[in-house]
Design brief:
- By secondary structure, the chain is mainly alpha-helical.
- The protein has 2 domains: 13-152 and 166-221, MFS general substrate transporter like domains (Growth Hormone, Chain: A, Up-down Bundle), CATH 1.20.1250; 250-436, Growth Hormone, Chain: A (Up-down Bundle), CATH 1.20.1250.20.
- Helix content is 75%, strand content 0%.
- It contains 18 helices and no strands.
- The protein has helices spanning 7-14, 19-42, 44-52, 61-90, 93-110, 121-144, 155-182, 197-220, 235-252, 254-283, 289-317, 319-337, 343-354, 357-371, 377-390, 394-405, 412-426, 441-444.
- The longest helix is centred in the N-terminal third of the chain and has 30 residues, at 61-90.
Length: 446
């Protein structure tokens, strides 16, 4: 269990984290949910696969998107850690977040130009690929800011607060899009489905949503302080510095390396739960298309509540314990789903599965913040992103292998195996002691 800081230290630090800064940080998560929920999961990517890609093409729309995602993952894996390291060294976390956020906003807005014709497929794929890269790189700096909006005593609940706002923001926006533009024949402002206008408008709305809720962070969050003890380097030299830092980290703290590897595995399992859950709901458990959307909303609500409540629990028992409990809950629910049939059991155990996703995600971010050497948070979250991307093929591949041997139902075994592997490695990660030192100057500002 993590060691609690002295009460007087906690009170002192708490006074130096203004509430408006915390709310601005959470508002960004609320806004960024528009990208994950609308663009990459439920609406725009589906539109590209079903309506933009040619039906008789040698490569299906889904495969085109998968190829695009794979290429994007390679770029992120090779660049995230160095970008995070340079932001730490130069004091440019907020600047980096702003640059990459603006690039995401522009790419999302340009998706309005994608009409349901095969000629627009290259544009759609380029926009999906670039926006995915920029969003991942923005998250490196965003996650590194966690220590600027929390204290050692509140780090878990603050991380859970951000994750829960992200889930709730996605749910609210999905409902707005569905009620206002997707469900009715003639939506708000006279928008119809002709020429894909409803989906294209939703993409534009999502960009505006992200801009409105993302901007407060840039006005209220101070820039991180540069590290005067670390010299400036060019991009190529930064890779050499990164390798040297990694060797030093390996010698000084192998616990952090074990966590990066463990989290890469179980986070891949978490991603598979959401990316493959809708497919399994229809092909294995017999849910209708409308029921899947309702299930998706319910799953996100429970994941948000789980993240929020898990954060408070974490500040009492530690992030490591919350992560292990969450993995255990997901593995148990996944095993039960192997043996049940029909929509009703899926509603019960499928939702039980998703309720643990939020706490695992939020506590992972909090734990890495505790493990990161002071002043290296951006670099560590860059490595966190890179390692996650490096193994992102694993759960889908194992799902495909087990499904090929049996059916889509047995494919669940592949996801369970990845979660178990991450959990077993997580057992070798030691819980860090809560720091009680005064945080960096950017945290004290405000």
């Amino acid at each position: 269990m993590d060691q609690a800081p002295a009460p007087e230290v906690t009170a002192q630090l708490a006074d130096r984290v203004p509430r408006r800064r915390l709310l601005a940080w959470g508002s960004y998560d609320w806004g960024a949910a528009s990208f994950q929920a609308v663009i990459t999961t439920f609406v725009f990517a589906t539109y590209v696969s079903a309506a933009v890609a040619p039906e008789d093409g040698a490569v299906s729309g889904a495969n085109w998107i998968a190829i695009t995602n794979a290429l994007s993952a390679v770029v992120v894996a090779l660049s995230a850690a160095v970008i995070g390291q340079r932001a730490d060294r130069l004091g440019r976390r907020k600047r980096n977040l702003m640059v990459f956020s603006v690039l995401v906003w522009v790419a999302m807005a340009l998706m309005f130009l994608v009409r349901p014709e095969a000629a627009y497929l290259p544009l759609a794929l380029v926009l999906l690929g670039l926006s995915g890269i920029f969003m991942e790189l923005a998250n490196v700096s965003y996650n590194a800011m966690l220590q600027q909006v929390s204290t050692p005593a509140t780090l878990g609940r603050v991380s859970g607060f951000g994750w829960s706002l992200g889930y709730f923001g996605g749910i609210v926006l999905l409902l707005v899009c569905y009620v206002g533009f997707i469900a009715p024949e003639v939506g708000w402002f006279g928008v119809t489905g002709e020429d894909g206008l409803d989906i294209r408008t939703v993409a534009l709305l999502s960009a505006g949503w992200f801009v409105v809720f993302g901007l407060p962070l840039f006005f209220l969050m101070p820039e991180s302080a540069p590290d005067p003890g670390r010299p400036r380097h060019g991009v190529v030299a930064s890779y050499r510095v990164l390798l040297a830092d990694l060797r030093q980290l390996w010698r000084a703290d192998r616990n952090a390396f074990r966590f990066l590897l463990a989290s890469a595995l179980y986070r891949d399992g978490l991603a598979a739960i959401f990316s493959l859950g809708a497919v399994l709901a229809v092909t294995v458990y017999g849910l209708g298309a409308d029921d899947v959307l309702v299930f998706g909303i319910a799953a996100n609500v429970l994941a948000a509540l789980g993240a929020l409540s898990g954060g408070f629990v974490e500040d009492r028992i530690g992030a490591r314990a919350v992560i292990l409990i969450s993995i255990g809950g997901m593995v148990l629910a996944g095993v039960v789903l192997l043996f049940v049939s029909g929509p009703q059991p899926f509603w019960v155990f499928g939702l039980l599965l998703t309720i643990w996703v939020g706490p695992a995600q939020a506590s992972s971010r909090a734990l890495l913040t505790r493990l990161a050497p002071p002043g290296h948070e951006g670099q560590m979250f860059g490595l966190y992103t890179s390692t996650g991307r490096a193994v992102s093929f694993l759960a889908p591949s194992l799902f495909a292998v087990f499904a090929a041997v049996g059916s889509d139902r047995t494919g669940i075994i592949g996801i369970v195996v990845v979660l178990l592997a991450g959990g077993l490695l997580m057992l070798r990660v030691s819980a860090p002691r809560r720091p009680v030192a005064v945080p960096d100057p950017a945290t004290r500002a405000g």
